[in-house]
Design brief:
Elements (H helix, E strand, L loop, with lengths): L1 E5 L3 H13 L3 E5 L2 H10 L4 E5 L7 H11 L5 E5 L4 H9 L4 E4 L4 H15 L2 H5 L2 E4 L2 E4 L4 E4 L2 E3 L3 H12 L4 E2 L1 H8 L10 H13 L6 E6 L3 E7 L1
Parallel strand pairs: 1-2, 1-3, 3-4, 4-5
Antiparallel strand pairs: 6-7, 7-8, 8-9, 10-12, 11-12
This protein binds calcium ion.
């Protein structure tokens, strides 16, 4: 789920981004209406949150222009102004919802979920807990357990394991892991992926009879159940 946030106040934009990322959304930021419009039209966002008073193009006008090009995309207007006229104007411009600053983050999250539900099936939104064999990963609390035993991972180990759990029972090449987990191109001269795989093995597999992380010689790694 990727959300575009258009907000000219960097501190507020940063807070929204941080808050949404805690709910596992990916967030892009734009700090003026013009940039926001370009980004909204060039990338496939699942939802847009925009402030009303913005440089270059204001939020109401922006909403109107995005709506014309993308009739389906959910848009939430965010503003310090809370009069009925603003709301009516916002809805007329095609906004789906309206939130007055300062707002409670849980309220924003609840509204996002409601809007996304309209366009995405339930399981996509609520899939915050991953299961594989006796391993469980909670994406919201960032915790991992195996046979109920808590396993402590570093953020990178967590991301690597999350990628493996979401792609079980197929060979994952080092290049693919580098791209998806490290967002970098794999340099064959380095072995950092193998190093991280070993860290993970020690934490996930070492104390258990059934191994989940397996090396496919010359190809990469596979996440599956095997003794
Ligand atoms: Ca503003």
């Amino acid at each position: 789920m990727t959300i575009l946030v258009i907000e000219d106040e960097p501190r507020v934009a940063g807070l929204i981004k941080k808050g949404l990322e805690e709910y596992t959304y990916q967030v892009d930021l734009a700090f003026d209406g013009e940039t926001g419009k370009t980004m909204a039209l060039s990338k496939n966002y699942d939802l847009i949150i925009t402030d009303i008073i913005l440089p270059k193009i204001n939020g109401i006008e922006l909403c109107r222009q995005i709506r014309k090009a993308k009739p389906q995309i959910p848009i939430i207007l965010l503003t310090a102004l809370g009069t009925t006229d603003d709301k009516v104007e916002g809805f007329d411009a095609g906004a789906d919802d309206y939130l007055v600053k300062p707002f409670d983050f849980r309220e924003l999250h609840a509204r996002i979920r409601t809007l996304l539900k309209r366009i995405k099936p339930d399981h996509v939104i609520h899939k915050t807990i991953l299961h594989f064999a006796d391993l469980t990963m909670d994406l919201q609390t960032k915790s991992v357990t195996r046979t109920g035993k808590e396993i402590s991972l570093t953020p990178k180990e967590f991301k690597l394991l999350e990628f493996m759990m979401q792609n079980p029972e197929r060979v994952l090449s080092r290049a693919e892991i580098a791209e998806k987990v490290w967002e970098t191109h794999f340099d064959t001269g380095t072995n950092f992926i193998d190093v991280y795989i070993n860290y993970l093995r020690k934490k996930i597999d070492k104390d258990f009879e059934t191994k989940l992380i397996h090396t496919k010689s010359g190809m990469g790694f596979i996440f599956k159940v095997e003794k």
